[in-house]
């Protein structure tokens, strides 16, 4: 009887120690996660403040957009380009890929969409800021440009919309540059960003994974060069002498993914 009682007390003691250890570990994990979330937001805010403080920005980039075909095969389409921006109302962007060679020029009064492949271009009046233009192109003309968020003056608020988890993953190296690697989640997407460490918190890599689409395709943007000077003539459209001016609605498809590539609902 004494042995049985002793064993029972010992078991209870072990369970008490185990439960206490588990609770301690759980509290530590929650505290660490909370601290990581705060650190991730702080680093992202530092990047946002730096980017929005730049009156002029000139960047070159590579991008990959991953899609899922009708037979569930994943494909990536790769492009390169540049963006030149002078706040508040000047923008010049190019994107060259295997299927499209596109140019967008905005001088504060007129926006030009130039399809260099077909030598067609369209122009419309568009008074407002470059940020207004980005919204118009997205909402009315289907030009999504996920990486454009990085250039907005309210980039922090835009990127943090609906975020439910945030974490500092650690360090990473992009093109030889040490970066802070952050990861964020919301209901529809997971996204990661690598921000240059130090006095110039430049976004160097940005990955968006679409959880709402089967096989979770993703978009990747890698910023190669980042300058804060723009040539004075960067926002003057210079058409090819053989190019034809047409209505915006008559421009052929300017997406970086060929039509018919993705399954229904699978196009980012």
Task: Write structural notes for this entry.
The chain has 268 residues and is of the alpha+beta class. It has a domain at 44-95 and 128-229: Lipoprotein localisation LolA/LolB/LppX (outer membrane lipoprotein receptor (LolB), chain A), CATH 2.50.20.10. Helices cover 26% and strands 37% of the residues. Strands 7-8-9-10-11-1-2-3-4-5-6-12 form a 12-stranded mixed beta sheet, with helices on one face. β3 (90-97) and β4 (101-106) form a beta hairpin. The protein starts with a helix and ends in a 23-residue tail after the last strand.
End-to-end C-alpha gap: 71 Å
Low-confidence segments? 4-35, 264-268
Going by CATH, the homologous superfamily of the domain at 44-95 and 128-229 would be Lipoprotein localisation LolA/LolB/LppX
Say how many strands there are: 12
What is the average of the pLDDT values? 83
Gyration radius (Cα, Å) is: 25 Å
Q: What portion of the residues fall into strands of 2 or more residues?
A: 35-45%
Largest sheet: 12 strands, mixed
Amount of helix:
25-40%
Tally of alpha and pi helices: 3
> What class do helices, strands and sheet pairing give?
alpha+beta
Order of the strands making up the biggest sheet: 7-8-9-10-11-1-2-3-4-5-6-12
Look up the CATH topology of the domain at 44-95 and 128-229: outer membrane lipoprotein receptor (LolB), chain A
**Shape, principal axes of CA atoms:** globular
CATH architecture of the domain at 44-95 and 128-229: Clam
CATH class of the domain at 44-95 and 128-229: Mainly Beta
How do the SSEs run, as a string of H and E? Answer: HEEEEEEHHEEEEEE
């Amino acid at each position: 009887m004494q042995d049985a009682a002793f064993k029972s007390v010992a078991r209870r003691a072990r369970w008490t120690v185990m439960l206490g250890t588990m609770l301690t570990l759980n509290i530590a994990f929650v505290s660490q996660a909370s601290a990581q979330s705060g650190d991730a937001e702080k680093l992202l805010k530092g990047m946002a403040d730096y980017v929005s403080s730049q009156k002029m920005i000139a960047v070159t980039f590579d991008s990959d957009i991953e899609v899922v075909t009708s037979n569930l095969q994943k494909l990536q389409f790769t492009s390169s380009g540049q963006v030149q921006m002078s706040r508040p109302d000047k923008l010049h962007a190019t994107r060259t890929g295997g299927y499209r060679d596109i140019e967008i020029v905005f001088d504060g009064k007129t926006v030009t969409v130039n399809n260099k492949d077909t030598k067609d271009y369209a122009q419309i009046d568009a008074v407002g800021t470059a940020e207004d233009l980005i919204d118009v192109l997205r909402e009315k003309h289907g030009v999504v440009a996920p990486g454009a968020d990085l250039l907005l003056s309210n980039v922090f608020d835009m990127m943090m919309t609906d975020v439910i988890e945030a974490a500092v993953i650690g360090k990473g190296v992009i093109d030889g540059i040490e970066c802070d690697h952050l990861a964020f989640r919301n209901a529809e997407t997971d996204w990661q960003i690598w921000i240059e460490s130090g006095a110039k918190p430049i976004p160097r890599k940005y990955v968006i994974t679409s959880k709402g689409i089967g096989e979770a395709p993703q978009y990747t943007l890698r910023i190669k060069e980042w300058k804060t000077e723009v040539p004075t003539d960067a926002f003057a459209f210079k058409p090819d002498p053989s190019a034809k001016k047409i209505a915006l609605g008559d421009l052929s498809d300017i997406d970086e993914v060929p039509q018919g590539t993705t399954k229904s609902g699978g196009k980012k």
